[in-house]
């Protein structure tokens, strides 16, 4: 895709030059201070990474290149029902510019032309038991393509540092183009007896993914466009993005770094929370013996979960301190497209019930829902009931942000990431000296 690549190259060269000058002049300028609680508390809030594609505000939520989710929905080229195409977000994250509909169509075509899977992906996946967790299958499917890495091949051939971004761009474009096929293959082999559905090259990236999953409903296509857009990036510090960044900084190629990030996404405090939410709701419905629990019944179940020493999945966040705008975007979608779903009504009743209960604990910093609190109920509505699959959908979307950011990292010549660790003895010695 020459126009995107050229546009990126011009922007990247300009920023590379500018950042080098900034570093030279202001390299010693203090940008942050670290307190003990941050060292022992998961590095919350420590500024230590450059991430061009998006930035998170604790109260307003995510902004992609400065644009909020409502703005993205309005400005990006969309499908027939008005939901943004993820291709447009990728373009925006890479260039900082809102693309035209024609540019987005060209990107769709470019990804279609790169989307065929090498046979070893299917062979590797078919060697696994059908009930291997879909996220395990996903990382294995990604790793099965690593032998195609242009970055690794060119590095072995002696590629110059100035060409890293170019090889990284080509790998990232190939990987993004192929991921819906890998993901659909996993879904159909695990849950539909291996009855695979060929790609439809007349469709955009998200609609074709919906098609290969087995649902050609126009509303489901719209959901997939929205879903794959809003999950794409959440600045650089979240566990999956940070992992991709760390691994990529060793000059591991995009296949290696992205699959590493997907192993972080597969944890229940991160992306796997989307499966945990719906599992928790289904268990609640079964325990209570009703599909329409009252808020009082939900409160009792929430209390039982807390008393058992467990977290309420889909609630809380390491950075956000208000309801996640990605939750709100999904709620708006449901209000517009879906009528009379008991499950979705239950999600909304949980939203009315959980925050005051978490607040009452006195320790939860954010009692509000995050992105994962809503997504499962939407997917169930459109027939994707197999919740162990949900994190794969999150992962396909997350590729857009972390791989765009990875191209930027290579273009800006980012070095090996290597922060400092300390021992408890060191901490105690500091306190004694103070
Ligand atoms: N339910 C019960 N307790 C909670 C919850 C929750 N949803 N959220 C936080 N807490 C507890 C937390 O376990 C900790 O307890 P303790 O001191 O006993 O260890 C205390 O509140 C303080 O935690 P915070 O500082 O508020 O949260 P932190 O930044 O450490 O963690 C999460 C953020 C997202 C890991 C946490 O809120 C959580 O476990 N949420 C449920 C899982 C979830 O929904 N994860 C998805 C996040 C979004 N994503 O897609 O990645
Ligand atoms: C994400 O989308 O990565 C999650 O909300 C977690 C985070 O931002 O820390």
From TrEMBL:
Pfam families to which the protein is assigned, alphabetical: Citrate_synt (PF00285)
Keyword Lipid biosynthesis on entry: no
GO MF term set: citrate synthase activity
Keyword Transferase in record: yes
Pathway(s) the chain acts in: Carbohydrate metabolism; tricarboxylic acid cycle; isocitrate from oxaloacetate: step 1/2
UniProt-listed InterPro entries: Citrate_synth-like_lrg_a-sub, Citrate_synth-like_sm_a-sub, Citrate_synthase, Citrate_synthase_AS, Citrate_synthase_sf
GO biological process: carbohydrate metabolic process; tricarboxylic acid cycle
Keywords assigned by UniProt, alphabetized: Transferase
EC code: 2.3.3.16
Family under the similarity heading: Belongs to the citrate synthase family.
Name of protein: citrate synthase (unknown stereospecificity)
Organism (species): Neolewinella agarilytica
